[in-house]
Fold this protein.
Amino acid sequence: MLRGERLVVGERCSRHVFYALADDHVRDMLKDMVVHINEDREGRIESDIESSEGDKLLLKKIAKR
């Protein structure tokens, strides 16, 4: 679904496919979604998603939900 909507891009390595966010716009959209969810749940804004390490953290948070 995400690949079909061009939100992620895949790179095949043997039998495995590794996915990454398609571009900065997608990263910003997901970041805004996480911030919005945290505002609703905790009444505060978390801004710990700024670097490429933040992208990994963001994907982990989304995967846990």
In short: The chain has a mean pLDDT of 76. The longest strand covers residues 8-13.
